[in-house]
Write a structure and sequence with these properties.
Shape: elongated
Oligomer: single chain
Helix content: over 70%
Distance between the termini: 13 Å
Strand content: under 5%
Largest sheet: none
Number of helices: 6
Order of helices and strands: HHHHHH
Radius of gyration: 20 Å
Length: 119
């Protein structure tokens, strides 16, 4: 890996470091909520439902729905259950072993680096 790439990776790692476990937990909460939001947006598009319709389905305000989609409010289980019923879908949840995931990610990086060295 050349110096520029290594320096860029070091800067990125520094930006991703957390001063406390609470900061890391908050980011993880927000990322998980955003994953659900992305899925919900796809479902709305597939079912030709807009956010105003969703507010009616959820029996909530348009403002609340807007805040959820902008990330200002978190998606909660009650809202997910209402969306499931309204759109006749089921959210599936599964766990991924982070240790295995990190190892697989490491292998991909190693392979990519070896490919770039040969170019």
């Amino acid at each position: 890996m050349n110096f520029e790439k290594k320096n860029s990776l070091n800067k990125l790692n520094q930006m991703l470091e957390f001063k406390s476990s609470n900061q890391k937990a908050k980011l993880e909460e927000e990322l998980l909520s955003l994953k659900f939001i992305a899925t919900i947006e796809e479902l709305l598009e597939q079912n030709d439902v807009n956010r105003s319709d969703l507010a009616n389905i959820l029996d909530s305000s348009k403002s609340y729905v807007s805040q959820v989609f902008s990330g200002d409010k978190m998606v909660n289980i009650r809202i997910l259950a209402k969306i499931q019923r309204a759109l006749n879908v089921s959210f599936k949840l599964y766990a991924v072993d982070n240790n295995r995931f990190q190892f697989e990610k490491f292998l991909v990086i190693c392979i990519e680096e070896s490919i770039f060295k040969t170019i």
